[in-house]
Amino acid sequence: MARTQGSYSGTTGPRVRKAAQKLFARNGYATVSMRQIAADVGVQAGALYNYTPDKQTLLFDLMKQHMDELLAARAAQDVAQVPLAALEGFTRFHIRFHLDRPDAVFIAYMELRNLTEPHFEQLEQLRATYEGELMAILSAGQVAGVFDLRDIKVASRAVIAMLTGVTTWYRDSGALSREDVEEIYWQMVRKAVAAT
Amino acid sequence: MARTQGSYSGTTGPRVRKAAQKLFARNGYATVSMRQIAADVGVQAGALYNYTPDKQTLLFDLMKQHMDELLAARAAQDVAQVPLAALEGFTRFHIRFHLDRPDAVFIAYMELRNLTEPHFEQLEQLRATYEGELMAILSAGQVAGVFDLRDIKVASRAVIAMLTGVTTWYRDSGALSREDVEEIYWQMVRKAVAAT
DNA sequence: GTCTATAATTAGATAGAC
DNA sequence: GTCTATCTAATTATAGAC
After folding, report:
1. How many CB atoms lie within 10 A of CB A178?
2. What are the structural domains of chain B?
3. Which of A3, A88, B15, B79 has an alpha carbon 20 to 30 Å from A190's alpha carbon atom?
């Protein structure tokens, strides 16, 4: 977290987090050294400790910020009353948000085991909160009879896993547009949960 | 006791790989030291180098063996002629195989970036081969008119991501049996790809 | 085959000059 | 705020005794 408001802290602090995010995503938290991050920013290693008490906190702050942004962006969305429309909104939102932040997403899924226990627990609760958003939609549709699911929690995890998987292969330089991808996944999600 | 030469090699080698697999899955390749692996096996660190030229090769061998086993197990399966039955077979096979090997699966997905380029390329080809198995089934169903998919490759990746996600939450101690889980996922996969 | 000992390198983090 | 210098500890891998 930025703790100083000096003229440099406004610029070096964010650059440290940006460099750490890029390098952690590319090479893994445990593999990246503080010296590598410093070199990427263009300072010496000691200077990093003006912006984070230690490496572990730097990782946690990145992951926490990502989840906070995810929940804030979701909260800013209108959620349709009709379950099918609400599900479409969630699906498209999830794909867009994740494709916009490949590095943060990668870290969020890969580096959980490098967190200390209290840090892990905090993030797990945020993840569960997000999962709850989808579960609420699926429950409403189940009650209304438009969805047919044996287990709401398993279904929500299955859908989220499917959607998040898009980040492992999608490239803007590829043949499919983001709109194409949204549409393809949405049709699969729609059918997967539908009552027949 | 007879001479020890040879008599340990048949047992220490596998124990090294087992310990490495467990520790890599739990703590991550980069975090685990050769000394930790050695301690888990019950030898000194130097002794490990009788069984692997270096740490990187130890990781690669684990991942390669996992993919070889996956393809061999799949090849040993009967593949139904009817696309719907073939898809059900693939789905249940994938879930069973992955739930049986949580550590190997975890490593296979998390440690790809810790491989050198030629090692990575080898595994990527094996992964693509496995993906091709599902693509062939989906293509056959598409041609037969029983599946309706906009993009076979994207669909196969979506299905595999959804199914593999089961390993992140399923525990034998939980409320659902493996048969329950297979059934829940199968119903979602079946509907997701179906022509309406 | 395994041990002890060690070489060579690198890590995270801190102290104090400027 | 950043730098240089440094401390302490840990790392991979190897050499040679047994």
Report:
1. 15
2. 1-52 (1.10.10.60), 54-193 (1.10.357.10)
3. B79
The structure tokens 């797990």 sit at A124
Which residue type occupies A120? F
DSSP state of A92: H
B182 to A24, A192, B104: CA distances (angstroms): 35, 15, 20
Predicted pLDDT of residue A7: 42
The pLDDT tens digits of the residues spanning B162-187 come to 999 999 999 999 999 999 999 999 99
Distance CA B39, CA B8 (A): 17
The residue-averaged pLDDT of B78-86 equals 98
> Exposure pattern of B82-116 as b/e (b: 16+ CB <10 Å)?
ebbebbbbbbbbbbebbbebebbbbbbebbeebbe
B180 neighbourhood in chain A, CB within 8 Å: 151
Q: What secondary structure does DSSP assign to B126-148, as a single string?
A: HHHHHHHHHHHHHHHHHHHTSB-
Instruction: Work out the minimum CA distance from A7 to partner chain B, whole angstroms.
Output: 37
Q: Which of residues 5-24 of A touch strand D (CB under 7 A)?
A: 5-9, 12
Q: Which of the nucleotides lies closest to A32 (Cα–C1')? A: C11
Residue B10 pLDDT level (bands cut at 50, 70, 90): low
Percent of chain B with pLDDT over 70: 95
Q: Tokens 């196969």 belong to which residue?
A: B156
Within window 47-66 on B, which residues have Cβ closer than 7 Å to strand C?
Answer: 47, 50
Q: Name every chain B residue with its beta carbon within 8 A of the beta carbon of A184.
A: 150-151, 154-155, 158
